[in-house]
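Honest question from a wet-lab person: if I give you the sequences of every part of a complex, can you actually get the arrangement of the whole thing, not just the pieces? Trying it with mine:
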Amino acid sequence: MTKKIYFELTEIILALYCKVLFTMTEDQQHLQTLTDIKRIMERSSRFISLSGLSGVSAGLCALVGAWLARVWLVAYYERWDSTGVYSDADYADLKFKLIVTALVVMVAAVSGGLFFTWRRARRNNLPIWDVTTRKVLLNLCIPLAAGGAFAAGLLYNHMEAVVAPACLVFYGLALVNASKYTLPELRYLGILEVLLGIANLFLLRKGLYFWAVGFGALHIIYGIAMWLKYERKGSIQ
Amino acid sequence: MNPIGNLNKIFESRIRLGVMSVLMVNNEVNFNDLKQMLEVTDGNLASHLNTLEENGYIKVYKGFIGRKTNTTYAITAAGEKAFKGHLVALEHMIKFTK
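Yes, you can. This is the full assembly:
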């Protein structure tokens, strides 16, 4: 029902925009009223301050993280090859380095994301914390927390190879879920992440590359597309 | 038929129209969230909400979160119909005036 009203309002407003330039002020007043209604509906039901630059910065963090992880992995395998024997201590060291890298990347990506979104909200004079923020975060966090617990369980059972696909799938589902309360385009990013995660299941040893594409490249492409669409000077809004 | 006749007097106030717009797309909204979205003062919003309630366009639910009162508002079927009618009337006004 609400979607239909958005659509109808958009249609009316677009169709009458040109006409209004040449007609009387009363018309303008009514059109202004319709525009206001549409704006209030949008603002009150969706968190619209999510910035494309947040996606770009998160993607860059992910790429740096993936590169670092590759460095650790290559070093580990080279050492194994040179000594010829498997070492528990080396493996524990690698695991530690990877987990620390992942945590640092996550904190950097989230802070960068928050910064650009906060900046956009401030520029548009919108509150950063309101009912739409709570809705989007809650709906993002439900699948994300489930995914986090699931991945922790996989690590606990020494099924490391499945961690990357699980992260991608749960993250994608979280985005699909959250997209109802923010930019609708986020849904497509979510679907792509899910598909990538599933593809990764059939190429298990390539987890790091799938991660770099899913969390790095896709975020950057999505972020640039959203920035061009909504934030660049002269774009709509 | 006079198109102006279809414009709903109750929605002449921008604040009342704003409240209806918010409630059209959100199931239940509490007083503070409405106040924040519409950028109005307590007293002003309360009196407009009363008018809407008296006309049967919105329902009021009084609840508690701990000891604090938490009043939420939702649109009624009659309110939805009236709001849609008002939108149609606005649209007609724009289309048929010269």
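Two things worth pointing out. Residues 2-45 of chain A form one domain. The interface with chain B takes residues 2, 5, 8-9, 12, 16, 19-20, 23-24, 26-27, 30-31, 33-34, 36-37, 40-41, 43-45, 127, 130-131 of chain A (CB under 8 Å).
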